[in-house]
Amino acid sequence: MNLQTAYSGSRPAEVTFQALVTSTPRYFYGSRTHCMHEAFDAQTCAGQVEIVDNVCIAPRVPVAPGDRIDVRGEMVHDRGRPPVVHWTHHDPGKRHEDGFIRLRGRVYA
User: Strand 84-86 to strand 100-103: parallel, antiparallel, or no bridges (unpaired)?
Assistant: First the structure.
């Protein structure tokens, strides 16, 4: 789906876009997955997003503020907050479309 449409919508949508990283990564354990996740903020042409990557499935992405990245994942909305983009990795169960984060030519999936 087009990033602008997904950003202004309210339903989950698969998106592919370029972004500028605006924060250092934060790490936390997912309450449902019980896996370590990496999260960081990024600016897209549509607006600010939070990118959340499951680093039990994909390697950590060594991002820093100012890095330019390409992202494929699922955008979801939480009222009052910027959209979250997750599923930025492959799906070992083959039940969800694979995503990725590309940094300096290397694909993290």
Answer: unpaired
How big is the chain by its Cα radius of gyration, in Å? 13
**What's the domain range around 84?**
3-108
Residues 7-49 pLDDT 10s: 888 899 999 999 999 999 999 997 887 899 999 999 999 999 9
The domain total for the chain is 1
| pTM reported for the whole predicted model | 0.92
3-state secondary structure the chain: CCHHHHHHCCCCEEEEEEEEECCCCEEEECCCCCCEEEEEEEECCCCEEEEEEECCCCCCCCCCCCCEEEEEEEEECCCCCCCEEECCCCCCCCCCCCCEEEECCEEEC
CATH number of 36's domain: 2.40.50.140
Could you give the maximum distance between any two Cα atoms of the chain, in Å?
34
Question: In one letter, which amino acid is 22?
Answer: T
Which sign, positive or negative, has the C-alpha torsion 95, 51, 45, 6? positive
